[in-house]
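Saturday, quiet lab. Running sequence design on the structure tokens for the scaffold JK sent over.
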């Protein structure tokens, strides 16, 4: 396990946050005063490809290791926050059709929250990873005003995750599928070129945000179109999977092809945020994902382009802010911990 740069010991009871990913788990500890006890990633292998039993055991190892690292007695832990990639129910049951990270049959319909709760003997509060990141972004940005404000976050990755936070808490919905912002269908006028095919998402929808603003959208829809417009571009000679992953590096160099692709992505997210403005009128719009990990000038350009393509009324524009998700690699575990702390403090789980 990686050593933390700075470690504090708890000054009160605590909750633990566990972020489960395709290759690694990330763990953190949050005490009752709102202080995180580690300042950077603390990881161990997630072993999700070995099936549920191994994955749950790896989460238990992450839990034990973070307590040891922070010198936190088990008796001080009141609850554990867990996040995983979706799709999953609000209670942490993996989709009956599986998911990108959980593709073996043994994962289909597996109740990972209850399994970890039984393994640890502690209450486990579940969120999907995008909701957890959105929750942390909200609390980090608003601080003491977090429980009185609202926000919407779009997390651009392999797909497009998201989260809607109202009065400091994630909106989950009846089936746990609120905040699936990637599958909101958007008006494509002003996003696509006149001769550009309507993008199709892996979910089957046409013209949803994920079909454009995601790595999958780049690979399946945007890049095949734009390399025909730039046939001499170096990426035109690359396999599309590799070209899609290389594209951000070109974007950081203001490459015309890459700029065209990322402009379309930013416009699509702007359309999404315009819809959000008319549903929830949030106080903040957050942008996260791979773009946040890019060079500072590029991520600021991307955020500015999203803002320019979000149509707000004058009153909304004065009241709302646009910001990047902070501490992105730690946002999942930290958001999971924030949810657990709130559950313990309010008694609502």
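Result came back. Writing it out in full:
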């Amino acid at each position: 396990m990686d050593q933390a740069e700075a470690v504090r010991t708890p000054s009160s009871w605590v909750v633990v946050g566990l972020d489960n990913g395709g290759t690694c788990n990330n763990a953190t500890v949050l005490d009752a005063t709102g202080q995180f006890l580690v300042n950077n990633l603390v990881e161990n292998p997630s072993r999700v490809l070995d099936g549920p039993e191994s994955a749950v055991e790896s989460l238990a190892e992450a839990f034990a290791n973070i307590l040891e690292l922070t010198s936190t007695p088990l008796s001080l832990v009141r609850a554990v926050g867990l996040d995983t990639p979706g799709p999953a129910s609000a209670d942490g049951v993996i989709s009956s059709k599986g998911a990108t990270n959980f593709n073996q049959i043994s994962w289909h319909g597996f109740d990972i929250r209850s399994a970890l709760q039984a393994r640890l003997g502690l209450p486990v509060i579940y969120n999907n990873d995008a909701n957890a990141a959105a929750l942390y972004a909200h609390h980090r940005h608003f601080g003491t005003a977090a429980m009185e404000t609202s926000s919407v976050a779009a997390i651009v990755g392999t797909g497009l995750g998201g989260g809607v936070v109202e009065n400091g808490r994630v909106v989950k919905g009846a089936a746990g599928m609120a905040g699936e912002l990637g599958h909101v269908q958007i008006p494509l006028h002003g996003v696509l070129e006149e001769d550009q095919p309507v993008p199709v998402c892996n979910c089957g929808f046409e013209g949803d945000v994920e079909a454009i603003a995601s790595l999958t959208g780049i690979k399946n829809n945007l890049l095949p179109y734009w390399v025909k417009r730039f046939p001499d571009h170096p990426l035109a000679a690359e396999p599309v999977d590799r070209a899609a992953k290389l594209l951000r590096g070109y974007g950081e160099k203001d490459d015309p092809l890459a700029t065209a692709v990322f402009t379309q992505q930013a416009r699509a997210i702007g359309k999404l945020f315009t819809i959000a403005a008319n549903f929830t009128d949030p106080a903040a719009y957050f942008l996260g994902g791979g773009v946040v990990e890019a060079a500072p000038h590029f991520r600021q350009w991307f955020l500015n382009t999203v803002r320019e393509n979000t149509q707000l009324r004058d009153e909304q524009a004065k009241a709302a802010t646009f910001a990047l998700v902070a501490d992105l690699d730690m946002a999942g575990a930290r958001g999971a911990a924030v949810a657990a702390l709130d559950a313990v403090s309010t008694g609502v789980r």
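Notes for JK: The domain at 144-325 is CATH 3.30.420.40 (Nucleotidyltransferase; domain 5). The chain has a mean pLDDT of 93. Ask whether to fix the surface positions before the next round.
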